[in-house]
């Protein structure tokens, strides 16, 4: 298998060992829960997580101003309720815990169970569920993808401002329906735990509307020039995003070189200009990946002063660069 | 071609357009020269560059505390002397200009010609040449690879401290022979300007000691477990690095996911521990890439307080994260 790994059963533990060697602000507890070494003494604690394979999400966002804990499941596999409960108990300081969950059946179920278990131990817990992927038409079934990183950042900012658990949940519930993403892939992810590719695709084709686990998208097409690909993605997003001022994330899927993300950025900018949209902030890089999938996703959020401030306030995460 | 590009003739210009859209602190002059919008009013100006395809190097390091300009050649092609001269003239403020050049014949020749042309215009110019790749045994022929990024950072730091051109050159000449790198690849880069892969390799093999343009290395081997790969790389580096305290860069080659760079980090750390080496600082990420090549390089620098301070002082580059 063309991977820098030792053994498929050690992928997650080796990755977390390596991450905490280079990033001195975090540590691993309960085998797969990443927390800040300096636990926050007050304020709502923000917990997220899910299957691994999306690095730097989620563990890389455990940092001042973002997450207090990330619960890391095996590759593309939801973490179990007991691990989520460990995370909640480790970070709660009496001001309550907010769970940021991507909308996948396993994640939603396991985070919900953990919430119930924590509440039985008198910890205040609330949950928000991210469903930003417009490639799925049924809004209740929409997957949580790269827009989740915006939720991590805004949640961490609001917690640091001293907002209450109820207020943070309320503000995020207003923000969530405005975050819209869509992705595409040129190549599938090679899943280290199985040695299998996430999907089959020939050398001439691409998948539009793909999920971050290689889930089927809107359409399989012959590969096109990047400007035409961008046109397809923007068309889907602008069916739902009506704001004139936007914040835009150009997210690499794991194996896409920065040069190509920059080229995508040029055409997104050009086409949004043509549609009289004004981009107030760009985020370009690998934020929510799918192992070594080649491809890109776009996330649009309507600009507001409040969201801009929340996103541009500094964090100690080495992976949230603006 | 499985690439997010429009036209191969536009790869460089599209990339620079996109880069300067998302990164508001830089701009393009003379078509392919990236400079800081806020030109430094005093102090030595640091200029680097070379062929493109190594992003974020070099343009991404044009930032406070690092480079004042990056001269961007076409993919894997040296920039021409006239462009280098444009960069020198754009950034010189009377305190002189230092050129940081990777040891490739075309780069060395063209930067040298530009230096001579600038000197004829009474601009003080000095050059340092980076030759950190231990995969080449003849030291005079060694390629400049990921260690170049350390030179950018230290040079920018010394310039900001107000050191003279002569002093910066002298300090870098002391540092340069201590920086040692070696790389490996699982897959070749797909070169957008030709549509060809940089080299041929089968599904079971890897190349040890590869250069950042896919140049042949020390040995073609069957793919091994990451701990054995790391052992090979470290063995080559420790032939030359005798210090007990080190600074280590684990550099992705462009298509290597962060999860795998973290796994590499674990085994580098473990094996250096076994050899009683103490790593004082880790840099893990994509610093000097080879388009979409999958692979990793390691760079070792002996730790000193001075180098540590130079590397950890903040820069405004979004791509130099420590």
UniProtKB/TrEMBL annotation, chains A, B:
Coiled coil: none annotated. Keywords: Kinase, Transferase. One of its GO terms (molecular function) is glycerone kinase activity. Pfam families: Dak1. InterPro entries: DhaK_1, DhaK_dom, Dihydroxyacetone_Kinase. One of its GO terms (biological process) is glycerol catabolic process. One of its GO terms (cellular component) is cytosol. The keyword Kinase applies. Signal peptide: none annotated. It is an enzyme of class 2 (transferase). Its EC number is 2.7.1.121. Residues 7-320 form the DhaK domain. The keyword Transferase applies. This is Dihydroxyacetone kinase subunit DhaK.
């Amino acid at each position: 298998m063309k991977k820098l790994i030792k053994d498929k059963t050690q992928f997650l533990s080796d990755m977390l060992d390596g991450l905490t060697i280079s990033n001195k602000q975090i540590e691993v507890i309960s085998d797969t829960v990443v927390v800040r070494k300096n636990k926050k003494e007050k304020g709502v604690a923000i917990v997220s997580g899910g299957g691994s394979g999306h690095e730097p999400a989620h563990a890389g966002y455990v940092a001042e101003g973002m997450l207090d804990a990330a619960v890391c499941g095996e590759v593309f596999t939801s973490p179990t309720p007991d691990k989520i409960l460990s995370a909640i108990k480790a970070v709660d300081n009496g001001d309550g815990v907010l769970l940021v969950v991507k909308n996948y059946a396993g994640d939603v179920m396991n985070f919900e169970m953990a919430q119930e278990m924590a509440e039985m131990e008198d910890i205040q817990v609330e949950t928000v569920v991210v469903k930003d992927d417009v490639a799925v038409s049924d809004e209740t079934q929409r997957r949580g993808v790269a827009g989740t990183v915006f939720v991590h950042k805004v949640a961490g900012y609001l917690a640091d401002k001293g907002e209450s658990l109820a207020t943070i949940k309320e503000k995020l519930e207003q923000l969530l329906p405005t975050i819209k993403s869509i992705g595409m892939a040129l190549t599938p992810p090679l899943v280290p735990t199985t040695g299998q590719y996430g999907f089959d695709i020939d050398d001439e084709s691409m998948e539009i509307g793909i999920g971050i686990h290689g889930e089927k998208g809107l359409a399989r097409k012959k590969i096109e020039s990047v400007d035409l690909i961008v046109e397809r993605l923007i068309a889907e997003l602008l069916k739902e995003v009506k704001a004139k001022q936007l914040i835009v994330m150009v997210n690499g899927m794991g194996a896409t070189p920065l040069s190509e993300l920059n080229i995508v950025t040029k055409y997104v900018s050009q086409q949004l200009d043509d549609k009289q949209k004004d981009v107030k902030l760009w985020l370009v890089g690998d934020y929510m990946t799918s192992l070594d999938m080649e491809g890109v996703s776009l996330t649009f959020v309507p600009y507001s002063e409040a969201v801009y401030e929340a996103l541009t306030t500094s964090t100690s995460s080495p992976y949230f660069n603006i």
